[in-house]
Design a protein that fits this description.
Elements: E1 16-17, E2 32-40, E3 46-55, E4 73-75, H1 86-91, E5 93-98, E6 100-107, E7 110-118, E8 124-134, E9 140-150, E10 161-163, H2 168-175, H3 184-193, E11 200-204
Parallel strand pairs: 1-3, 3-9, 4-9
Antiparallel strand pairs: 2-3, 5-8, 6-7, 7-11, 8-9, 9-10
Length: about 220
């Protein structure tokens, strides 16, 4: 999270930016991350917003917020049917703007971390879901989960799963709350068809990233 998402305000046509940005280089589940959403205000006007969400989906019916630690990713193959995600995929979809993410390759001598970053000038946008959960103090927690799919292209050489990436032209359709519930399976299929692994480049990084207490720019630098 080293990119200030507010820099995208004009390009993404954001009406409201409420994400409290601070640079991060090692972001584990449970952290707060930015999400791009479209929501209706009290007067019925649609606004595109950059909001803060806890990474790990907590459905409205959950008894404990800790359930989110089991739901930081959502498999695209089962997301339409799983109780944890099936309401969010149909009604509350979002996009997560990031400069890159880490992935771990199982290799001889242990696991090797990689930095996956945007191949072009634009950041990466990951397809996500979000939910609202009422906390004990009656305030609302916004949480999110990243949609994943089977890896393709060169990314399959590192790991068998990858995020569902949204091209800039696909963001509008994905986050549109006006998409009817019955049309969501078609929207999901079209989104998966347009994922481009070539939009991502990668390089090996040091194993210090495996400790979440390490959080410096050096974690993203190439090694070997």
């Amino acid at each position: 999270m080293s990119l200030d998402p507010a820099d995208l305000a004009d390009e993404l046509r954001l009406d409201v930016v409420s994400y409290d940005y601070s640079p991060r280089y090692n972001v584990p589940p449970g952290s707060f991350v930015p999400i791009v959403v479209e929501r209706l205000d009290e007067e019925g006007q649609l606004h595109r917003r950059l909001e803060t969400a806890s990474w790990g989906l907590v459905p409205s019916w959950a008894k404990d917020v800790k359930i989110g630690f089991k739901a930081f990713n959502a498999r695209s193959e089962t997301v339409l049917d799983k109780p944890m995600f099936r309401q969010a995929i149909r009604r509350r979809r979002c996009a997560l703007p990031i400069p890159g993410y880490y992935e771990w390759e199982t290799a001889e001598g242990g696991k090797q971390p990689w930095m996956m970053s945007a191949a072009g000038k634009d950041p990466l946008f990951m397809a996500g879901l979000f939910e609202f959960w009422k906390q004990p103090d009656e305030s609302w927690l916004v949480s999110t989960s990243i949609l994943t799919m089977e890896s393709a292209g060169h990314l399959s050489e590192v790991h068998h799963r990858m995020p569902v990436f949204l091209g800039r032209e696909r963001i509008d359709d994905w986050i549109d709350p006006g998409v009817l519930s019955n049309d969501v399976p078609e929207l999901l299929a079209a989104t998966l068809d347009h994922v481009d692994p070539a939009s991502v480049t990668r390089h090996k990084v040091g194993k210090a990233v495996g400790n979440v207490r390490n959080d410096t720019p050096e974690l993203t630098q190439p090694v070997g």
